[in-house]
Design brief:
Blueprint lengths: L35 H11 L11 E5 L5 H18 L4 E7 L6 H12 L2 H4 L10 H15 L2 E7 L8 H8 L10 E8 L10 H7 L2 E5 L4 H9 L14 H12 L3 H17 L10 H18 L3 H16 L7 E2 H15 L6 H13 L3 E7 L6 E7 L3 H10 L1
Parallel strand pairs: 1-4, 1-5, 2-3, 3-4
Antiparallel strand pairs: 6-8, 7-8
The structure holds adenosine-5'-triphosphate and magnesium ion.
Adenosine-5'-triphosphate (ATP) binds next to helix 2 and helix 10.
Length: 398
């Protein structure tokens, strides 16, 4: 018998610590680049919690990859540590509202995060408990264990309704908790998110609003450089990071995109059996990142937005080369056919227009107002940002 060979034995020739290039990786404070002002402002907004007071509720807006989730997690962790030194117990609950979008799921996750069953003697069962019962457990846990609970609601616009916001923002005033207090940090990509809230929730939730701006190329370079030790020594050619940063900055200064392209460049190098990451692989890495990002972004959209993306892609494939943009009305017609095929009830044109402008905000499509000629008013034309073929593929796999 020949010698057996392990498929896992060889050390990775490219990466020394690939975790540094994962989105879930939480860098140390000194590795958070270009966000000093934002971190300062956030700290100021929630600082009362450090002495057991009520923090301001905060809403954070900004395009994807601008460090919203990272800074919120970092600053709350820092606050909890500082508070502990004063003998104040601050608990942090992080909720990804895309995953936990119903009221019950959200309350359960918060209660679970704040709880320590050994200390409280309270359990948070995964199922078989009503929503109001989860709330009762949550209030008890807060009073039993914590002085301040801070709830980070990431992608807050994905919540099914405002109930949980109403309950959390009124907990102290309604006497649900007695010797503890609560703060909320809401995070959203949608700058108009606030308009969808009822007045009461709106005023209590957005005591402080912040907008995180995109990164420029030199900030992106610094972000990438601070993670270059993900690679083995001398593997990464000098010109790779500037090129990756320039590519990511050309779109909208998205740090996630920059980090992903760098990781893909390393993976592609490995697939080619090469031992150094060169700029030649960066374009391929960029394509791979676009495909992956698009599939993920489309998969997160509501069903009818997916149908609209597909309808626009199909219309663009048919469109004449010199007239690639598609009026919203034509998308609506193509969309009705898609709905029919999918057995879904199509939405009215007004709602379709809203969804299209949301897709434009997410940079999935581009919109432009065009005049129809003298006295005939204007209409909106639409275009995909990515190739129609890639979009059709992504919609089908989403
Ligand atoms: N200033 C920074 N310094 C170092 N790393 C950063 C910085 N900003 C973002 N990153 C990294 O970039 C990635 C994306 O950041 P983050 O998840 O915070 O973006 P986001 O604004 O929450 O985006 P989204 O709206 O898509 O959720 C993460 O891996 C994060 O660690
Ligand atoms: Mg985020």
């Amino acid at each position: 018998m020949g010698e057996s060979k392990s498929f896992f034995g060889d050390p990775d020739p490219i990466f020394a610590d690939k975790e540094l290039l994962r989105v879930s990786h939480l860098p140390e404070g000194d590795r958070i680049i270009g966000r000093d002002d934002e971190l300062q402002s956030l700290a100021k907004a929630i600082k009362d919690a450090q002495r057991g007071g009520t923090p301001n509720n905060v809403l954070i807006y900004g395009k994807t990859g601008t460090g919203k989730s990272l800074c919120s997690k970092y600053i709350t962790r820092d606050l909890a540590e500082a508070a502990a030194e004063n003998g104040v117990q601050v608990g942090i609950a992080y909720v990804d509202c895309f995953q936990e979008s119903t009221e019950t799921q959200t309350v359960r996750t918060i209660a679970e995060s704040f709880n320590d069953p050994d200390e409280t003697d309270i359990t948070v069962p995964h199922s078989g408990v009503s929503t109001s019962n989860y709330y009762r457990r949550l209030w008890k846990i807060l009073d039993a264990r914590l002085d301040v609970g801070i709830v980070i609601l990431d992608e807050i616009d994905k919540l099914e309704n405002d109930n949980v916001l109403m309950q959390l923002s009124r907990a102290a005033e309604a006497g649900k908790v007695n010797n503890s207090t609560l703060g909320i940090i809401g995070i959203s990509n949608k700058i108009r998110y606030k308009d969808t809230l009822n007045e009461r929730v709106k005023s209590s939730l957005s005591e402080r609003d912040f907008v995180f701006p995109p990164y420029d190329a030199s900030q992106l370079q610094a972000i990438l450089r601070s993670r270059a030790d993900a690679f083995r020594e001398d593997v990464l050619n000098e010109d790779v990071i500037p090129k990756v940063a320039a590519l990511a900055a050309r779109e909208h200064g998205d740090a996630r995109k920059a980090i992903d392209i760098l990781r893909y460049a390393g993976e592609i190098t490995d697939e080619h059996g090469d031992d150094s990451v060169s700029v030649d692989y960066v374009d391929e890495a960029h394509d791979r990142e676009e495909q992956a990002r698009l599939s993920e972004l489309i998969s997160k959209q509501p069903t009818h937005s997916k149908y609209l993306m597909l309808a626009l892609a199909l219309r663009m494939q048919e469109a004449a080369e010199d007239e690639p943009t598609i009026p919203s009305k034509q998308i609506h017609s193509a969309y009705q056919i898609v709905c029919e095929r999918e057995g879904a009830e199509p939405l009215k044109i007004r709602r379709v227009r809203d969804l299209l402008s949301e897709l434009a905000f997410l940079s999935l499509i581009e919109q432009e107002r065009k005049g129809r000629g003298k006295g005939k008013g204007a209409h909106t034309v639409n275009e995909l940002v990515d190739d129609p073929e890639i979009v059709v593929e992504a919609c089908r796999s989403a």
